Amino acid sequence: MMKLYGVIGDPIAHSMSPAMHNDAFSRLGIPAYYHPFHVKPNDLKKAVEGMKAIGVEGFNVTIPHKTAIIPLLDELDPLAEAIGAVNTVVRKNDRWIGYNTDGDGFVRGLKETLGRDLHLDHILIIGAGGAARAIYYTLASEHVRLIDIANRTMEKAARLAEQCPFETKTNVLSISEAEQRMGNYSIVIQTTSIGMSPKTDEMPLSLSLLKKGTFVSDIIYNPLETKFLAEAKKQGAITQNGIKMFVYQGVSAFEKWTGVSPDANRMEKIVLEQLGGYHVNR
Ligand code: ATR
């Protein structure tokens, strides 16, 4: 029988996940279908119960439900618990188990591009919101030793560092301190919404002291190249946009549901087609 998967969110119409997962199911000959479900916050509980009742096998969770869903699940993966957000739910023995594959997706994409592990890197994370939390805790859980955080509101970054359940060394920095220390980092990760369409001429901080050859990543994929990435490239950095994070959070979710690894390159192609962006990014 056809297995049913999906994504719940509000709004959900522009989700790229259905095209990505349905293509992978059909390529791998897995009889399954992935559907976008528009679920309003007030209906979240009913939706989670209803999906169990009708036999949904697993689903993704997106804005605004990633934290609100936690008390509605039967079990929580420890990393998702630390991050405080769930983007992937798996059905196991009729129980809903919540995971967070956002941070894992980012780190997998990063490792794939760099072709090495990250133990010896000195990383700067810009921002201290939900995305920063997922990436920071996942990096720390993988034993990256030096991860600094810079944020407009320093208290938020300090809280993130204090609450990290994994051992790592972190300096909490103001934006101007991070600008001054920019030359110390081998990897810089931009996690704020600054530079996202339509405000594409904004940048979270100056990169004037960036070292040539630094790896600079922006989790934004709309536009495919933010002003921040364009500036980093001008300074001789190796750059990466947010497409790989999106693709690999999907790869990890797919693996958790099916036990099979989908073709990440193919998924990336589907996502770029959805964005209509082949011409923008090389
Ligand atoms: P998400 O869950 O997508 O990460 P979030 O939790 O709202 O979003 O976090 C947004 C991040 O972008 C925060 O680090 C925020 O900085 P503050 O903690 O100081 O609010 C940062 N951010 C958003 N807009 C900003 C702006 N105009 N200037 C500086 N930082 C900004």
TrEMBL record:
Top EC group: oxidoreductase
Keyword annotations from UniProtKB, A to Z: Amino-acid biosynthesis, Aromatic amino acid biosynthesis, NADP, Oxidoreductase
Binding site for shikimate: S15, M16, S17, T62, N87, D102, Y221, Q249
Organism, scientific name: Bacillus smithii 7_3_47FAA
Reaction(s) the record says it catalyses: L-quinate + NAD(+) = 3-dehydroquinate + NADH + H(+); shikimate + NADP(+) = 3-dehydroshikimate + NADPH + H(+); shikimate + NAD(+) = 3-dehydroshikimate + NADH + H(+)
Domain Shikimate dehydrogenase substrate binding N-terminal: 7-89
Function as written in the Swiss-Prot or TrEMBL entry: Involved in the biosynthesis of the chorismate, which leads to the biosynthesis of aromatic amino acids. Catalyzes the reversible NADPH linked reduction of 3-dehydroshikimate (DHSA) to yield shikimate (SA).
Keyword Oxidoreductase found: yes
One CC-aspect GO term: cytosol
Annotated ranges, domain Quinate/shikimate 5-dehydrogenase/glutamyl-tRNA reductase: 117-193
Keyword Amino-acid biosynthesis assigned: yes
Pathway: Metabolic intermediate biosynthesis; chorismate biosynthesis; chorismate from D-erythrose 4-phosphate and phosphoenolpyruvate: step 4/7; Aromatic compound metabolism; 3,4-dihydroxybenzoate biosynthesis; 3-dehydroquinate from D-quinate (NAD(+) route)
GO terms, molecular function: NADP binding; quinate 3-dehydrogenase (NAD+) activity; shikimate 3-dehydrogenase (NAD+) activity; shikimate 3-dehydrogenase (NADP+) activity
Lineage start: Bacteria, Bacillati, Bacillota, Bacilli, Bacillales
Gene responsible for this protein: aroE
Protein name: Shikimate dehydrogenase (NADP(+))
